[in-house]
């Protein structure tokens, strides 16, 4: 289709805004998954643009693993206050305290997020759930629709996806079912950063190079903390690092970096020979189909 | 780093074992779009399967069942860039449901690569792919004749296939196509020009993808603005939506469909900045002179070329679902931002359409739709048919006026 000289960022922005407005027009109770990571921050920014000067007609949902970076929680709370948003929290720690979920041997809580997320969607009767997933992230995500139907157990069945044609998104669903919506489907990691730079969007500080106490595990730099690191034999050292993704502290690794400005971050990513998840996510290294399996069960 | 670089959306289609996954893998690999950890994962998986060389097809087969069965099931989207252009590739599999998958991929594509095996030439599925590209009005088609290494890089083999395909293309109403001889396995003419085929003087596949003009829609295309949502701010009402064709200016006289009421644009906002003019495909909001009762599903148009307001929609269709579509079925039709009830009145003489059928339809709708001919405007000429019982997407339609 014609682009009349629209830059690729303008085209991606327009497409994402179109998706937000489609959901506002077709659903009763949409919610934005908000982790405080850069993709969810860009999502919220786009939603604010899509409905200005009126407020965003959605609330936010944070699935809290209990292993949060303090800088990210602080950021979350400031954003919620600044825009007068309503924040829902689904707490993994709650489920562990109640004995519904059990801590895993490896200490990571990423796979434990699925149940609190699913039950919150059911109890709040959310019918559209925005996620910041991008198709360039991972092979199973490359097959994801913009509107992705989930059953009442939040399960994703790749063989039963609806064909998605033109920009005609089909959001019809039965009571109890919901639709996961991915407005950043066609964005790459580099697009997200270029957009953050262009729009001057503030991010949590941990995305930029800083000095931090870390230790090595599984080929990544993890932050020492109450969540369970370091173990015996793992030594803590101070390094200059930054985070390329933000998730559960126990399985999100930092990368060695001196990129302390957005321009340096963009230059670093453009030259990187590793994917974002390959460099920073321990949980995706488990198997060839780790993400697919989590998605089937209702993960983000 | 330029941010004004343009984007080509393209789709690939091939029959079983034409080597399409290998071609896509080669395109990604040789354009240096595959990162070290991805390649490492492919090498690891290839070794597990007892293969010596990395199997580039594994780069694109993302689902467990695909790797287990060695086939591609679903449309996958890939993103890569060269210094000259960004690419969004819809990789459409040639196995199960290949017509449905190609229709999906082609619906947003500006170029389609149709792949044939040089040893087999044009087969039934190739004709099907060409028909879909024609039906979906994909502006550019590349015929990639693959596995040239297995036919001794013979020019005559290539020429015979091109001639054969040209005959079908003319019959199917394909405006034209660009043939390229390649070997995805070896890498001939995918990114680098081949040293084995000095008789071929054209560009490599990637060179062609980098050069083909995009944004072919005419600048004077009719203005079409389907209203998605009405933003209320105090007394003010803003009609929000994506301009899907043409341009709108402050001061333009506009018509709201289906009511037919007219008004004037008094303000245009392009995501936070007031503008005098907006172009497709910008997402915008507009204010009208009189606070008319405009709502989601209405379409605002400007200029003399108005859409056809009709309750009898005639269209070419591709049936996508496993359950058939029958004459007399009660369905929902989703056109732009409007969803209306409809009855299937005629299926081009057939009693039913089954999965992957291409055909014709006449729908009687409960309320009028403002439609354009799909050949004139893809976004306002396209619709989907939905099963009201469970919301399944049944059929893709392209309006014929």
UniProtKB/TrEMBL annotation, chain A:
Stretches for region Disordered: 281-300
Domain Phosphoadenosine phosphosulphate reductase: 30-253
GO biological process: sulfate assimilation
Protein EC: 2.7.7.4
Enzyme class, first EC level, given as a word: transferase
One Pfam family recorded for the sequence: PAPS_reduct
One of the record's GO molecular function terms: ATP binding
UniProt keyword terms in alphabetical order: ATP-binding, Nucleotide-binding, Nucleotidyltransferase, Transferase
UniProt cross-references to InterPro entries, sorted A to Z: PAPS_reduct_dom (IPR002500), Rossmann-like_a/b/a_fold (IPR014729), SO4_adenylTrfase_ssu (IPR011784), Sulfate_adenylyltrnsfr_sub2 (IPR050128)
Gene3D superfamilies found in the cross-reference section: HUPs
PANTHER family assigned to the protein according to its UniProt record, in alphabetical order: SULFATE ADENYLYLTRANSFERASE SUBUNIT 2
Sequence similarity: Belongs to the PAPS reductase family. CysD subfamily.
Name the UniProt record assigns to this protein: Sulfate adenylyltransferase subunit 2
Organism: Streptomyces cupreus
Native organism taxonomy: Bacteria, Bacillati, Actinomycetota, Actinomycetes, Kitasatosporales
Gene: cysD
TrEMBL record, chain B:
Entry coiled-coil feature ranges: none
All residue ranges annotated as the Tr-type G domain in the record: 5-217
An example molecular function term from Gene Ontology annotations: ATP binding
Keywords on record: ATP-binding, GTP-binding, Nucleotide-binding, Nucleotidyltransferase, Transferase
Keyword ATP-binding attached: yes
N-terminal signal peptide: none
InterPro entries registered for this protein in UniProt: CysN_GTP-bd (IPR041757), CysN_NoDQ_III (IPR044139), G_TR_CS (IPR031157), GTP-eEF1A_C (IPR054696), P-loop_NTPase (IPR027417), SO4_adenylTrfase_lsu (IPR011779), T_Tr_GTP-bd_dom (IPR000795), TRAFAC_GTPase_members (IPR050100)
Broad EC category: transferase
One GO-annotated biological process of the protein: sulfur compound metabolic process
E.C. number(s) listed in UniProt: 2.7.7.4
Keyword ATP-binding: yes
PROSITE patterns (UniProt xref): G_TR_1, G_TR_2
Protein's name in the database: sulfate adenylyltransferase
């Amino acid at each position: 289709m014609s682009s009349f000289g629209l830059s690729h960022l303008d085209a991606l922005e327009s497409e994402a805004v179109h998706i937000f407005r489609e959901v506002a027009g077709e659903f009763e109770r949409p919610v934005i998954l908000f982790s405080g990571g850069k993709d969810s921050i860009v999502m919220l920014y786009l939603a604010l643009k899509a409905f200005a000067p009126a407020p965003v007609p959605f609330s936010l949902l944070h699935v809290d693993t209990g292993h949060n970076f303090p800088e990210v929680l602080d950021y979350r709370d400031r954003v919620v206050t600044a825009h007068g948003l309503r924040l829902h929290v689904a707490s993994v720690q709650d489920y562990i305290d109640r004995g519904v979920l059990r801590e895993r041997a490896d200490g990571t809580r990423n796979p434990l997020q699925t149940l609190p997320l699913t039950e919150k969607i059911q109890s709040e009767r959310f019918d559209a759930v925005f996620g910041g997933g991008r198709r360039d992230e991972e092979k199973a995500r490359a097959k994801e629709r913009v509107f992705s139907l989930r059953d009442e157990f939040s399960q994703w069945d790749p063989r039963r996806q609806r064909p998605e044609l033109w920009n005609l998104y089909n959001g019809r669903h039965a009571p109890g079912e919901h639709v996961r919506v991915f407005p950043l489907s066609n964005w790459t990691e580099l697009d997200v950063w270029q957009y953050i730079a262009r729009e001057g969007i503030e991010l949590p500080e941990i995305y930029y190079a800083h000095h931090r106490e870390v230790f090595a595990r599984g080929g990544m730099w993890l932050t020492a903390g109450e969540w369970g690191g370091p173990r015996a034999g793992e030594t803590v050292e101070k390094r200059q690092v930054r985070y390329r993704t933000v998730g559960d502290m126990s399985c999100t690794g930092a990368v060695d970096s001196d990129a302390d400005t957005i321009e340096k971050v963009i230059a670093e990513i453009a030259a990187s020979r590793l994917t974002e998840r390959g460099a920073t996510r321990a949980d995706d290294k488990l198997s060839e189909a780790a993400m697919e399996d989590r998605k089937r069960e209702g993960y983000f | 780093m330029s941010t004004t670089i343009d984007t080509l959306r393209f789709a690939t289609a091939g029959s079983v074992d034409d080597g399409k996954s290998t071609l896509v893998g080669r395109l990604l690999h040789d354009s240096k779009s595959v990162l070290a950890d991805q390649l490492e994962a492919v090498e690891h998986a290839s070794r597990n399967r007892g293969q010596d060389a990395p199997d580039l097809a594994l780069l694109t087969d993302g689902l467990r069942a695909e790797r287990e069965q060695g086939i591609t099931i679903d449309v996958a989207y890939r993103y890569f860039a060269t210094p000259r252009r960004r690419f969004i590739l819809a990789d459409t599999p040639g196995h199960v449901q290949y017509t449905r998958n190609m229709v999906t991929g082609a619906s947003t594509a500006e170029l389609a690569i149709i792949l044939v095996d040089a040893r087999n030439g044009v087969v039934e599925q190739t004709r099907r792919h060409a028909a879909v590209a024609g039906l979906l009005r994909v502006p550019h088609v590349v015929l990639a004749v693959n596995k040239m290494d297995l036919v001794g890089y013979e020019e005559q083999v290539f020429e015979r296939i091109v001639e054969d395909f040209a005959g079908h293309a003319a019959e199917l109403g394909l405006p034209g196509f660009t043939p390229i001889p390649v070997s995805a396995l070896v890498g001939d003419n995918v990114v680098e020009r081949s040293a084995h085929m000095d008789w071929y003087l054209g560009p490599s596949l990637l060179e062609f993808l980098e050069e083909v003009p995009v944004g072919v829609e005419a600048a004077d295309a009719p203005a079409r603005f389907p209203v998605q949502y009405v933003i209320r701010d105090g007394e003010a009402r803003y009609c929000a939506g994506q301009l899907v064709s043409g341009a709108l200016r402050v001061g333009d006289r506009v018509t709201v469909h289906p009511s037919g009421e007219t008004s004037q644009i008094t303000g245009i906002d392009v995501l936070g900045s007031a503008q005098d003019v907006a172009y497709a495909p910008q997402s915008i909001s507009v204010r009208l002179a009189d606070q008319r009762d405009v709502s989601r599903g209405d379409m605002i148009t400007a200029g003399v070329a108005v859409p056809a307001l009709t309750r009898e929609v005639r269209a070419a269709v591709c049936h996508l679902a496993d359950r058939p579509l029958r004459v007399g079925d009660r369905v929902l039709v989703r056109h732009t931002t409007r969803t209306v009830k409809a009855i299937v009145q005629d299926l081009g003489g057939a009693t039913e359409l089954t999965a992957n059928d291409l055909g014709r339809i006449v729908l009687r709708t409960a309320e009028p739709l403002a439609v354009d001919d799909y050949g004139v405007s893809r976004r306002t000429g396209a619709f989907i048919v939905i099963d009201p019982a469970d919301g399944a997407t049944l059929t893709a339609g392209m309006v014929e006026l």
